[in-house]
Write the structure tokens for this entry.
Amino acid sequence: INWVMPLIDDIKKHEGFSPIVYQCTAGYDTIGYGKRIKYLQITEEQAEEWLEEELQNLKYVLADKYDWFLPAPQEAQDIVMNMNYQLGVTAFSKFKKTIKYIKVKDYKSASTEMLDSKWARDDTPRRAKELSDRMKHIG
């Protein structure tokens, strides 16, 4: 491992670091220190680390956006985070009635409203039904 550190430093100096995807000079989608995404392979452990990091960031975003989020029961937080992870924060924010009901702790009504959506009808009906069923049984 000792032999690789000077090489890593050298490549880092020449490649530069990008935390987001960019196109390298050859036109390939690239991230990090010049890693072509087309050839990107990760372990399941790496994917899980990324997921955990993403969820921790998402929790801060939701806590900042919704004053009801952190005081909500853990199961409600988990369901909301699951939806936001899949849909994105902007798309989830359009579930206005669902959000309103979660805010006032009416989880049964929130569960019904979750199913009144394109997400539940067309996109991922099984996931929506499972999350809605879980929401219905909170408190």
The radius of gyration is 20 Å.
